[in-house]
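re: that chain from earlier
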Amino acid sequence: MNITEAEILNWIAAFIWPLLRISALFVAMPLFSIRAVPATVRVILTLAMTLFIMPLLPPMTTVDLFSATGFSIAIQQIAIGLTIGFILQMVFGAVVFAGQGVALGMGLGFASMVDPQNGQQVPVVAQFYVITMTLVFLSLDGHLLVIKMLLDSFTTLPINLDGIDREDLWLIAAWGSRVFASGLLLSMPIIVSLLLVNICLGVAARAAPQLNIFSVGFPATLLLGILLIWLTLPAMLEQFSGTLTDAYDFIEKLLHL
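^ sequence. v structure.
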């Protein structure tokens, strides 16, 4: 049995190109991309999924792996995986944005900790929201649905030069406005309530300057903020689920599922 060099390169390409798409997803996807998940775990998951999906892939066009066309195909596979993960990261970015607004209204903007999602300092309120929404994401099997959509994308977007084009990039950039819109929707009830409380405290301090209103107002605002977080948490979870569903619909549109 004679095996030519071209056949070996085709086998390597049939393994490398799916590997690039899957590994790009695990690099950018929430939960799997955090520093708490070792790189070894991501590598093992990527290799296992690639070996599982290889026999199920549709026939690929014969392209030299080390040619300009092969390089373009590799870039497309990375772009597809990164796009799916980036859209989900924007959903969690809206949660962080909402938590920062609530923390500033409560006076807890100075209390921050490291967010494991991106390694940046965020207020503790935002971190509480991120942890809660991550548990919701897992309880809804969101990670499994993302992996399923990625595997289905090998059928709708087979491994070739077609993939994420310029129009899709504009759609992704426009969808990025959802980070601010969703963040405001998540935090608006608490921010408006705290704003009204601060206005009342300001009026009281103006009417009676001899009273130290703000020494009493800070703990009152803090306690009210904690109470509002507890009261609005069910509505916030529902809003997050709706935003996550919209993100899945947008990913399906990009992947032509």
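The chain has one domain: 5-255.
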